[in-house]
Amino acid sequence: MRSSIQFILTVSFSLFSVAVIAMFGLLLYDKFSQTEEQSAILSTQQIVEQVSYNLEDYVRSITDVFRVIDQTIQAGGGAQSDTVASELKAILRTREDIVSLALFTEQGELIESMPRQQVRNSMRLTDQSWFKSATDTPGHLSFSLPHIQNIYHGSYRWVVSMSKGITIKQNGVTQNAVLLVDVNFKQIDELSQRVSLGQKGYVYIIDDSAGNIVYHPQQQLIYIGLKYENVEQALKYAYGSYMDDSTGEDRLITIKTVNNIGWKVVGVSYMDEVMTSKQEVGDYIVRILLLVLLLVLIISAFMSARISRPIKQLEKAMKSVERGEFGTPVTIRGALEVERLSQRYNMMMGTIKQLMNQIVAEQEAKRKYELEVLQAQINPHFLYNTLNSVVRMVGMSKNEEIVKTITSLSKLFRISLGKGQAIITVKEELEHARNYLTIQEIRFKNKFHFTLEADDEVLGFRTLKLILQPIIENAIVHGIERMVDEGYIEVRAQLIGERVRFTIKDNGLGIDEKTLQKLNSGQAVGTSEPILQGSGSGSGAMPVSSGSGVGVHNVRERIRLYYGEEYGLTYESELEEGTTVTIEIPRRIGTGDKKEVDV
């Protein structure tokens, strides 16, 4: 089913707009998605870095405590001086996060503690991890994992132990000692809980050396095995982000190592929350694009209607032409191209009317020439001369020639008048020429002889009827009849490319240059303007009064009407040498003048 131009324009513009909008929407959504993911990663990194910075700041404050205590001990003249005890008390009063301060000898004996507490007798301090770290790496601040404080009687608080190996003077003797500060873990817990990574995200802390969890907001679930963290993967990173699905959910893991502690802060963000945000952005983009698409459809429908309206007007005008109404010109306003189209349409209508008039005139001329052909087919003078020749032959008892003449005459008339068709085969046209030449040869008492040759492949092609006979008649009447010597006429049919070529050649008197030019230009030469031929003895040219020039012009016009301007006749001639006439028609086969087809 064919569609209107308005429908095609609307659909095409709409499809193009949909494709462009869809591509733009996908690019926009992809850009927003990437931006959202990058924002989530950046936000998580900033939060994790903030936690790391808070921990580092807290560690620096604890380090300052150790430095103050160490300086006080060195300046006070001993670890058990009143100055040291006074300083420890002052520190406990100003730092609520510090649970206890203690100083031990390298053998694990308590030198001083604040508040003063009794160490459990069963406690082997030298086996504690914080004690070993302080003695193994003197001067380095070590941190323990969160644990319950259990070295003092009656104290069971959740603390992180910080220890450092220092040098003291005891009774005038310099010796190594271990300074222990137990910090309330609640302070570290609060530093980590202040952050928020969405509704489900969180931050936890692990030990960089062994991967032990220092802090986790769901510590209890970790202990009883209801929650799992892929600590092994986190240990591979000092800083950065990666995707993790070890728990069955897509999570964004961001890691930052805390300087001077050996802890890693791990941020966990859930991608479904990021995707929810991306979905909201996508829905918003879709709503905007649908609104734009609706506007585009409305505009495309309006524009296509405006573009197609003048074309529909032109279509309406063409329908009036189909009904035969050629008189009314079309005036259409619109785009420049449409106005020009209407102008060309009016010019075309004028040309069509002119061509119709020309066709009518050509058809009338064609019927006229066909009538002339029919009249020429039965030339009374030719018939009279032929019958007169037969009478003479009867008196001379030339029975064989009589039979030959009458047989040729009957065949001549059969082809000339048979079936009333203007198109016959090349074979039939050559047969007609042969019969005509046979009759004329007998009539002129063997004044000339003739030959007919044809390629086998051209015999089945179609041709206009009676295009050879007028040319042969010219050759006899104007070229051979007044010759002293014997005449010769050669007729040949050939296939040259896509054309059938007839050649009629004689050795007659020839044609003068002026008459030859008129014949080749298509001008008719009749009785009022005689053809000039040679005298036969070489003394000059003489007029020959014959109307055969009209017959030649007739042949030329019939060929032009049936086959086109590029086909027709060509004359070549020299006085006293003879004349050659070439006829070319297109190569065609068929069964009649209305059923012809090109080969």
Automatic annotation (TrEMBL):
Residues 338-372 form a coiled coil. Residues 464-589 form the Histidine kinase domain. SUPFAM superfamilies: ATPase domain of HSP90 chaperone/DNA topoisomerase II/histidine kinase, HAMP domain-like. It catalyses: ATP + protein L-histidine = ADP + protein N-phospho-L-histidine. This is histidine kinase. The keyword Membrane applies. The chain crosses the membrane at residues 7-29, 284-303. PROSITE patterns: HAMP (PS50885), HIS_KIN (PS50109). Residues 305-357 form the HAMP domain. Pfam families: dCache_1, HAMP, HATPase_c, His_kinase. It is an enzyme of class 2 (transferase). It is a multi-pass membrane protein. It is found in: Cell membrane. InterPro entries: Bact_2-comp_sensor_kinase, dCache_1, HAMP_dom, HATPase_C_sf, HATPase_dom, His_kinase_dom, Sig_transdc_His_kin-like_C, Sig_transdc_His_kin_internal.
